[in-house]
């Protein structure tokens, strides 16, 4: 049975699976009409890589960075805390700096 995943923004490199996915199952990325093979089991609501993500590269969801890959992530891999670094503080510092610079203009 083909499973489905939702790519929230066209710039995302991950999609959210709409039902549990087992290793080897085909996943349809609805917005792209693209299918990929799940390389591992993924629980409902979790992310699947829809593009190769290199170690150190940003994880993009909602069209914005949500973390950084801690290892190479292949298309079809589960994307979660085991392979993603939390960059909340880094992003907050960056956004604060950008906001303050806009106020000086």
Question: What are the SSEs and their pairings?
Answer:
Blueprint lengths: L2 E4 L7 E4 L8 E4 L4 E4 L9 E3 L8 E4 L2 E6 L8 E2 L4 E2 L2 H16 L2
Parallel strand pairs: 1-3
Antiparallel strand pairs: 1-2, 2-5, 3-4, 5-8, 6-7, 7-9
Structure explained in plain terms:
The chain is built from one helix and nine strands, in the order βββββββββα. It has one domain: Archaeosine Trna-guanine Transglycosylase, Chain: A, domain 4 (Roll), CATH 2.30.130.110. The protein is elongated. 25% of the residues are buried. The longest helix has 16 residues.
The gist of it:
The termini are far apart.
Radius of gyration: 15 Å
Total E-strand runs = 9
Q: Can you tell me the CATH topology?
A: Archaeosine Trna-guanine Transglycosylase, Chain: A, domain 4
Helix/strand-derived category reads alpha+beta
CA-based shape: elongated
Mean pLDDT: 93
Q: What percentage of the residues does DSSP assign to strands (E)?
A: 25-35%
* Biggest sheet details: 6 strands, mixed
- Helix tally equals 1
Helix share bin: 10-25%
CATH architecture term:
Roll
The poorly predicted ranges are none
Number of domains: 1
Q: Which strands sit side by side, in order, in the main sheet?
A: 4-3-1-2-5-8
What is the terminal separation in angstroms? 56 Å
> Under the CATH scheme, which class?
Mainly Beta
Give, in order, the helices and strands. Answer: EEEEEEEEEH
For the structure shown, list the relevant keywords.
105 residues, alpha+beta, Archaeosine Trna-guanine Transglycosylase, Chain: A, domain 4, 1 helix, 15% helix
């Amino acid at each position: 049975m083909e499973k489905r995943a939702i790519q929230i923004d066209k710039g995302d490199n991950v999609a959210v699976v709409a039902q549990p996915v087992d290793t080897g199952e085909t996943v349809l990325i609805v917005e792209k009409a693209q299918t990929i093979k799940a390389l591992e089991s993924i629980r409902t609501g979790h992310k699947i890589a829809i593009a190769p993500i290199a170690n150190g590269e940003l994880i993009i969801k909602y069209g914005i960075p949500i973390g950084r890959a801690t290892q190479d992530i292949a298309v079809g891999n589960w994307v979660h805390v085991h392979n993603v670094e939390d960059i909340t503080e880094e992003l907050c510092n960056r956004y604060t700096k950008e906001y303050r610079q806009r106020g000086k203009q």
